Amino acid sequence: MPQFLSLDEFKAERRIDSDDQDAFISRLLTSAETQLDDPFNGILRRPVVAREFVETFDSFDAVELAFPDNATITTVAYEANGQGGTVGAIYDLEDGRLRLRHGESWPSADRVTVTYSAGWNVADVPEPIRDAGYFIAGQMFDHRDDFDAERFRHVLAMMIAGYRRATL
Prior knowledge:
By secondary structure, the chain is an alpha+beta fold.
């Protein structure tokens, strides 16, 4: 079942009145979402729909979140000499890194674990990303037998410009 693409919107766009192909179209929409939303292997190289990530680092200075876009930190935990704790509001998140606020200091740590969410709420997924999803599904629906891969890549690249992360 698609999360941020709508079966009804896809059908309205293509003037499809019948429900005969709903299951097939839903699979295409889900596939299109997966191609965009998989943060590790997807086209955008970032999560589209918000989800939780847990990353572990050797120190506070080593923290660089894999998916800093739209990130919200839930907890920052640390361990040192078999003891542990969590860090309160002594930092800000800037470009995926933890930055100490003025006058604060990090506790001693051998291991730092950051739990955070990254991505948009379903209702807030940017329109260009939704449009790219409909384009992907539409190409799979309309051109099952005569797919033009070069045109597809060119148009899709233009649609998602500014949202694709170049590297992880």
